[in-house]
Design brief:
This protein has about 130 residues and is an alpha+beta fold. The protein is built from 3 helices and 9 strands, in the order E-E-E-H-E-E-E-E-E-H-E-H. The relative contact order is 0.25.
Length: about 130
Amino acid sequence: MKPEELLYAESHEWVHVAEEEGQKVATVGISAFAVEQLNDLVYMDLPEAGKKVSSGEEFGEVESVKAVSPLYSPVDGEIVAVNSELPDHLERLGEDPYGSGWVIKVRLDDDAALGKLMDHAAYQKQCAAEG
């Protein structure tokens, strides 16, 4: 996926929504900017499929040498898939954050939360301000 095609939360998670078997499913990951800020990743804690998540709710965490950062769901729904290989291959977050570095997939309850997310241009402005 291309970063320009994604939506972003203020907390640096990205979202890509696609139709899967007639339902909207959001793939969620962590932006390249966030991975760079975290630097030296050492641990990741992920939820199990079947867990319900709400927009803005913590669903896991990623730990670097510097800090522990919560991961927040940018959408409402049920986790239908977890990238279970990711905690053993944290380098994928840096190498391919918008592809093999995806974190969870959520079947959307509704897409109201998507309206609160930023497009790529707005997210780039936020990153520049935080830079």
